[in-house]
Amino acid sequence: MAPSKVLAGARVVLPTGIVDDGRVVVEGTRISDTAPPDAETVDVRGHWLVPGFVDLHNHGGGGASFSGTAEDILTAVRTHRLHGTTTLVASTVTDDMDVLARQAGLLSELAEQGDIAGIHFEGPFISPCRKGAHSEKLLRDPEPAEVRKLIDAARGRAKMVTLATELPGGIDSVRLLAEHGVIAAIGHTDATYEQTVEAVDAGATVATHLFNAMPPLGHRTPGPIAALLEDERITVELIDDGTHLHPASLQLAFHHAGAARVAFITDAMDAAGSGDGRYMLGPLEVEVTDGVARLVQGGSIAGSTLTLDRAFRRAVTVDRLPVQDVVAAISANPARLLGVYDRVGSLEPGKDADLVLLDEEFALKGVMRRGAWVVDPQLG
Ligand SMILES: [Zn+2]
């Protein structure tokens, strides 16, 4: 076993507050509360230590996607780990049901091995009016029997399904998902305010990238945004890449929902951690220019090229959100939603030693997952 390590002198962000000149003891794969005498001390003064990031919604990175082969999936996972994401839910995009069922089988094996934290099906049960970068001809209504097929194909590894709950079968599907312990996420939806309230009452608990792919907030048609923001039972996903949301919209959502009800996600596609150029998002072609991904046909925004280290830095330095709140939204809240907060999502003894080292400007300077450095500490 590797010798124990004491990361000492950092500003450590704990659920109870920020500890200046704090320390985190790593023993084997876990965080410990006491350091053995032979522990190696790493001086990380002048840095922040925060929990590893947890991404609920991510389609790929490093030129590879979660719709690809096992090797592609691992490439994408590794890419995001280099950017601090130590727990990641792999998202699919709308495709043929047979293709999705097959992919679910493959992804479930990787979840079994601990490479990913589960599967998020985004589509095909979404609204043609708010399809975003999903193939219209492959969309379908959320018939519970169809939704069931995907959950079964995921062999206990389905974590979340994004659906337009106003479509025929939508409310019954929300109930089905809730019964199976799968998060019903409202998104790519054209629902009214009232329809959204009904879906939340039926058991939906997440808003898929709030604001994006849903009707805007109107003064007499408040739509899903108002219903999702006001309900304590809902966690809202936000994409903080400077492209998907105006900073004022992000602020509005963050302050209205409160730090305990926000999850920062990437919604990343293959180009994240890779570069501009031509990519595929499921069956659709995407052009990435200056880091912004758009469909070749029609120009819809097609996921992001965001990584969570960039989202973290932006949230603190541009949006001016408190570090403690950003840690909640990027680690603790998504971990709680996934039911893994007993293992990850905070820097507490007994949990996996998943952590991110940031410098004073919030640039990533080290990543540890389960006690091993994924990015060696750069302590300039
Ligand atoms: Zn997505």
From TrEMBL:
Keywords: Carbohydrate metabolism, Hydrolase, Metal-binding
A molecular function GO annotation: N-acetylglucosamine-6-phosphate deacetylase activity
Domain Amidohydrolase-related per the UniProt entry, residue ranges: 49-374
CDD domains: NagA
EC top class, as a word: hydrolase
EC number: 3.5.1.25
Superkingdom per UniProt: Bacteria
Any Pfam family matching the protein: Amidohydro_1
SUPFAM superfamilies for this protein: Composite domain of metallo-dependent hydrolases (SSF51338), Metallo-dependent hydrolases (SSF51556)
Keyword Metal-binding tagged: yes
Family (UniProt): Belongs to the metallo-dependent hydrolases superfamily. NagA family.
NCBIfam families named in the record: nagA
The protein's name in its UniProt record: N-acetylglucosamine-6-phosphate deacetylase
Organism: Streptomyces gibsoniae
Organism lineage: Bacteria, Bacillati, Actinomycetota, Actinomycetes, Kitasatosporales
Gene: nagA
